[in-house]
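Fig. S4 source data, part A: sequence.
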Amino acid sequence: MTAFNNINQIKYEGPTSTNPYAFKFYNPEEVINGKTMKEYLRFAVAYWHTFTEDLSDPFGVGTAIRPWDQYSGMDLAKARVEAAFIFFEKLGVPYFCFHDVDIVPEGSSLRESNQNLDTIVAMIKEYMKDSKTKLLWNTVNNFTHPRFVHGAGSSSNADVFAYAAAKVKKGLEVGKELGAENYVFWGGREGYETLLNTDMKLELDNLGRFFHMAVDYAREIGFDGQFLIEPKPKEPTTHQYDFDVASGYAFLQHYDLQDHFKFNIEANHATLAGHTFEHELRYARVIGMLGSVDANQGHPLLGWDTDEFPSDLYGTTLAMFEIIQNGGLGKGGLNFDAKVRRGSFTPEDLFHAHIVGMDSFAVGLKVANRLIEDRVIQNVVEERYNSYQSGIGLDIVSGKTDFHKLEEYALGLTEITHQSGRLEQIKATINQYFLTTFVGK
C-alpha cells in the first residue's frame, strides 16, 4: 500500500499562493520573538482522528475513504503506521499523539492486547529512527470498551480499577520506550449520572490513589514525561470530575498531586464548560499549570464536542497571546484533536484540514506577538487597575491594611469615579492589528 502518493511535500508559499497543498502563513523557519514558528507551535497529529476515524455519527455509518481500510486486524494496524509516517513527513509536523487502541486492536485478553502493542510499538520505534516526528504524548483508552461503563479509576467495580491501572502501567512503559514528552489522562468516564447510586467520596479518593500510583510507577521506571490532566465538563457522563481547570486544580491540590501534573487544555472542552478557550489557558497559565493544548474548535450552533479543525483567527490569536506569555508550552504542544467533517471524506482532505489549522495558529502567533510587543492589551489592563498602584490600593495588594483601616478610608469617600472598560475600542484595535500584520502597516 502506498498512501498519499499523489501529494507532494507541503511547503510554505506565502499569503498569495493559490496552491491548496501549501502553507500560506505557517513558515516553520520564520523567527518570531527569538524562536522559529516550528519551535513555538510544536504541532502534533492526532492518530485517532487522522488514521482511525471513519466519520460515522449517531445517524449514519462512516464515509471516510482510506487506502489502509482494505486491511484488518494487525495488518490494518501496520498499514496505518506506514501511512502515518508518510503523512507526518509530507506535512512536516514535528509530533504525533495516540491512545493504545488507536495503534492496535484490542485482543481477547489484556495479555493479548499487550502483545499487540509490543509488535506495533516496535514498528513505530523503527520508523521513528528515520523520522523527524516525535511522540508528543501517548495515553490509554479507558472509556470506550463496555468494561468502563461505570468509569475506570473511579469505577464502582474494583476489578475495573485494577484493569485500568494495568493499562496505564503499560501505557507508561510505551511512553518511555518511544520517548514521549508527556502522558495525558482524559477521564472519559470518570464521573457519574446521578448521586442516587454514587459514592462520590470513594470515587474521588480512588482517583487520587490511581494518580499517585501512576506517579510512583513513572518514577520507578524512569519515565520523565510531564503528566497532564485534560478537563472536559460533560460527554459522556453528566457530571465529569475533571470539569474545567479550576475544578481540576482543586482536585490536584486536595490529593497533593499539584506538583506532578499540568493541564492539557482543549478548545472545544473549554466552550462546553461555558468558558472561552483563552479563559482556560489564562487560568492554567496564572497558576503555573499550563502544559499542553488540544487545538480544535466547536460549532457555535451545536452543543456537543464537534472537534473541528481550528480556523477562527480570533480564537487562535487569543490562545497564542496566552501561550507566548507562558514562555511557550515547554514539553507540550498543539495537538490537532480534530477531525475532518463527514462530507470531507477523501485522504486529501486530511492535508487540507491540517493546513488550515497550522496556518490559523501561525496567524494567531504573529498577531499575538505584535499585540504583546506593542503592549496593546497590557497597557489597557494596567490603566484599568491603576488604583492599586498607590494609596489605599497599594496598601491592599501589599497586605498593609485591614477592615478597620478600609472602613475609615471608605467613610471619607464622597465620590467613586470609574473608568470605561472600552471593550469596543479594544476589539477595533485588534481588528486593526489583524489587517496591518498581513496587509501593511
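Fig. S4 source data, part B ends here. The first strand starts at residue 11 and ends at 12.
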